[in-house]
Design a protein that fits this description.
It is a single chain. The protein has one domain: Peptide Methionine Sulfoxide Reductase, Chain A (2-Layer Sandwich), CATH 3.30.1060.10. The chain has six helices and eight strands. A six-stranded mixed beta sheet has the order 7-6-1-3-2-8. Strands 4-5 form a two-stranded antiparallel ribbon. The two termini are 28 Å apart.
């Protein structure tokens, strides 16, 4: 497997990062990894209070981190709005701290924006989704600035692909 840390240097032209929390990061990563224009994905933790958290610490629910996927994408091949559209339909943004059978604040629905343009697009996208009535309930997704991304342990990276699975089976 390639060194994901080195892949996540968006110094190339037209490359940007996007970070989403939408439940268990295994399925979220698999959804985004397959998209044209997505150059690499990594799963990890963001938004908490502990430096360099481990999976076990995050699961104890006292670090306040979210399981996230960080995406490096080419803006000439896929837009941030396209990624937002996938984000909304790949999980239930109306459940607080839960996705399927996974319960806890590490599974909360969150968009971590990297810059002011992403913030505006995320807020507009959330409002559009809420106004559409598609989910029938209030969207509880949080939109906040990106914080330090802590890469999850290697065995979590591309977890489903390594095991020949297509999804976690929750939806």
């Amino acid at each position: 497997m390639k060194d994901l840390k080195s892949e996540f240097d968006p110094s190339g032209e037209n490359l940007e990062r996007a970070t989403f929390g939408a439940g268990c990061f295994w399925g979220v990563e698999e959804t985004f990894r397959k998209l044209n224009g997505v150059k690499s994905t990594a799963v990890g933790y963001m938004g908490g209070i502990t430096e360099n958290p481990t999976y076990e610490e995050v699961c104890q629910k006292n670090t306040h981190h979210v399981e996230v996927v960080e995406i490096l994408y080419n803006t000439q091949e896929i837009s941030y709005q396209d990624l937002l559209d996938i984000f909304w339909v790949s999980h239930d943004p109306t459940t607080l701290n839960r996705q399927g059978p996974d319960i806890g604040d590490q599974y909360r629905s969150v968009i971590f924006y990297q810059n002011s343009k992403q913030k505006i697009e995320a807020e507009e996208s959330k409002e559009k989704m809420q106004s559409s009535g598609q989910f029938g309930k209030k969207i509880v997704t949080i939109i906040e600035p990106a914080k330090t991304f802590y890469m999850a342990e290697d065995y979590h990276q591309q977890y489903l692909k390594k095991r020949g699975l297509k999804s976690c089976g929750f939806f």
